[in-house]
Amino acid sequence: MSSRTRRSILLQDVRPWGGAPTDITIEDGVITALAPHRADAPAPEGGDRLDGRGLLALPGLINSHAHVDKSWWGKPWVSYGGEATTQGRIAHERAERGALGIPSTDSTELVMQEFLRHGTTATRTHVDVDLGVGLDGIASVRAAAERLDGALEVEIVAFPQDGVIRRPGVLELLDRAAQEGAASIGGLDPAGIDRDPVAQLDGLVEIAVHREVGLDIHIHDGNDLGVFQFELLAERTVQAGLQGRVTVSHGFALGDVSGTRQTELVAALAEAGISWASVAPPGRGRLPWASMREHGLRLGLGTDGIRDLWSPYGDGDMLRIALGFARLHGLRYDEELVDAVRLTSTDSASFVHRDQHDLVVGSRADVVLVDAENVPDALLRAARREVVLAGGRVVVEGGELAL
């Protein structure tokens, strides 16, 4: 069923967030009513009835940090090579991507299908923009999303993986990407890669203000060097009036500081309206989550790259990412485990420019059904997504794509 010809649906006998059995009415891709389950409840006029079989219902998952353009998914296995540093990974990718046909619309579509199969219905994805591929990666991502007919909502960050200032012409490419519809532009280690943090940040901020787009900066640099860049970014965010439109991705240095200094840094970042995106990598991804929540510093989770020239890992499952986050931060109590799942759904609405994202009236009808006792059970087992609805369409049945 095309997203442009959606029918009304009565989704019966599901348990939103593990609560009481509920019937959810969906019309034109939006949740319009929730009511206690009644076996004889009438379906919307001219609509369909879908038996939820008492399954646990979650909102569609949101991937707040992906790189769908880089993957070799669907191709023969590619062995890891090159040096295990940020610069080493960049060099290896540039040397090898052409032979693998990266970027590729076909591989990108396969990754997006895996997102849907695992219950992800919206993603914010970085897409490489550089002097080699130009804007071809963005074109590939848009083409792949179009093939899925809107089932997966995709927000694009034009991303300068090979640096900005050190590659003359990249700022112009980023400006063009923003002009042609990218929701945000990205940056990368203004100090560690470009070795000129002021020039990179000033150039990016100028484009973000002029084109009225967001800004998302990868900062891998640790300790004082990373903190220095956070402070520069916060200052420029406030000066330019970009509060609520700037995100730091990874930001490992936030976990490298401690005590009063860390608390003051979190407060300053929150006051500047900066958001955080993490992929919860083991060993280096621990964040001062309690302090971030206390100060209102928004956090989203993402998969990062999936089977690409940076790493062979990844399968597109945001519940596994949430589970990794929970284990990394020592979460054990039920309410904490539920909060970890919320990071991949309701709490990440702003990362894809949604005012709300939940199993409530007015939300896009993105619903994930799993056979689990409660939300912690679904998280700890990363339970199979039995049924997934995206914008009111059934896109997964029995754990497999139904597109």
Automatic annotation (TrEMBL):
GO terms for molecular function: hydrolase activity, acting on carbon-nitrogen (but not peptide) bonds, in cyclic amidines. InterPro entries: Amidohydro_3, Metal-dep_hydrolase_composite, Metal_Hydrolase, Metallo-hydrolase_Enzymes. It holds the Pfam family Amidohydro_3. It comes from the Bacteria. Residues 111-396 form the Amidohydrolase domain. PANTHER family: BLL3847 PROTEIN, CYTOSINE DEAMINASE. This is Cytosine deaminase.
